[in-house]
Amino acid sequence: MYVTGQTQGKIFTSLAPMRGLTTRHFMDILYDCGEPDEYISEFLRVHPTATIPTDIIDLIENRKSVADLSIQLLGKEPEHFSRIAKMLQNYKIKSINLNCGCPMPKIGRKGVGGTLLTELNTIDNIISIISNNTNIPISVKTRIGYKSPQEFAIILNHLARHKLSAVYVHARTVKGMYDEPVDFECINVAKATLDCPVIANGDIRTAQEAINIIEKTNADGIMIGRAAISNPWIFRQIGELANKAKIFVPTGEDYFNLIEKLQSFTSELVLTDFQKTSSVKKYVIPIADFVDPLGAFPYCIRRATTPQELMNICKNFFVKK
Ligand SMILES: Cc1cc2nc3c(=O)[nH]c(=O)nc-3n(C[C@H](O)[C@H](O)[C@H](O)COP(=O)(O)O)c2cc1C
C-alpha cells in the first residue's frame, strides 16, 4: 500500500481536485507553502473525440512539485476511457482517478460524475476496461450515495470487486451538493469493506480537524479542497500538528505575497482587467472570508473591478494594518 495513514506522526494528505482552482500555478504555490503528499488533477472529460489537453500535460511535466499526481477522468463510455488511459500510459502518473461524485446538474444530466452512482455497472465496466488495457493503477473519488447514504453499502460492494489503489470519499450524497452535513461514519464502513486505502474528504478546515477525522474514522488519509485555497499552509500545519511541532501561522505579509503570486499568474494571460480581477478573486474571496469573516475586507474584495484596486485593498488589509 502506498498510503501510509497515521503512522509515527505522519498523516497522508491529498489536495482535492477543484476545477478552475487546482491549476499547475496553484500547485506551485503549495510547493512553496508546504505540499500535500499527492495531487489529483481537475477532471478531464472523456468523450469520443477527447484527447489529453495541453494544460494537463503541462501539469504532469512542468509542475515544481515532488508529490505524486493522479489524473481524474469524467465520463461514462468505457471504450473512450480505455483510449484515454492508453494515452496516459506515456506519462508518469500515480493513478487514473474516476470521478463518481460531481454533483453539478449540467454534468449530472449527461449521466457522468455523481450520476454514475445510479449506474454501478457502468462504473464496473469503466474500471475493468482500464485495468484490462493498461497497467495504470485506478482510484475512485465518490460520494456516499446519489440520493441517500443507504446506497453506500451497495456502492462499496461494487468497488470491492476491483483492485483499486485508493478510494476518496466525499462524505455527502450527490443530491446533498455541499449543503448536507458530512457523514464521516461512512468512512468506517468503507474501511471495513475495502482493502485499499480510504481517504476522507469533506469540510476539513483546520489541521486539528484533519487529525480528529483520522482518529474518529480510521481513514488512511485526508483530502482537503476549499480550505487549501483559503489557507495554502494547511498541509504543512497538519504535518506540524501531527508531529507535535510548533505550528506555522502566516503573517499578513505572507498572505500579501501569496496574493501577489496569484495575481502574477494572470498578467501573462490575454484578458481584460475585469476578467483578470475575476480570475484572482476566485482565490482571494475565500482567503478574505477566512481571515476576516465578519469584517469589511471580503465585501471590498468582492467589489474590486481592476487588479490594481484588488491589490490595493489587499495591501491595506494585510500590510499597512
Ligand atoms: C470549485 C470546485 C471545483 C471542484 N471540482 C472538482 C473536480 O474537478 N473533480 C472532483 O472530483 N471534485 C471537484 N470538486 C469537489 C472537491 O474535490 C471536494 O470533494 C469538495 O470540495 C469537498 O471537499 P472540501 O470540503 O475540502 O472542499 C470541486 C469543488 C469545488 C468547490
Describe this structure in words.
The chain is 45% helix and 12% strand. The N and C termini lie far apart (48 Å). The chain has two domains: 13-242, TIM Barrel (Alpha-Beta Barrel), CATH 3.20.20.70; 252-318. An eight-stranded parallel beta barrel has the order 1-2-4-5-6-7-8-9. It is built from 14 helices and nine strands. Helix 12 (273-291) packs antiparallel against helix 13. It has helices at 24-33, 54-62, 78-88, 105-108, 120-133, 152-159, 185-193, 207-217, 226-230, 234-242, 252-267, 273-291, 297-303, 307-318, and strands at 13-15, 38-40, 44-45, 68-74, 96-100, 138-143, 166-170, 198-201, 221-224. Residues 1-7 have low confidence and may be disordered. With 321 residues, the protein is α/β, with parallel strands linked by helices. The protein is globular and about 60 Å long. Flavin mononucleotide binds next to helix 9.
Radius of gyration: 20 Å
Number of domains: 2
Structural class by SSE content: alpha/beta
- Unreliable runs: 1-7
Question: What gap, in angstroms, lies between the N and C termini?
Answer: 48 Å
Succession of helices and strands: EHEEHEHEHHEHEHEHEHHHHHH
Question: Which outline best applies?
Answer: globular
Discrete helix count: 14
Strand content: 5-15%
Name of the CATH class of the largest domain: Alpha Beta
Counting DSSP E segments of at least 2 residues, the number of strands comes to 9
The third-level CATH topology of the largest domain is: TIM Barrel
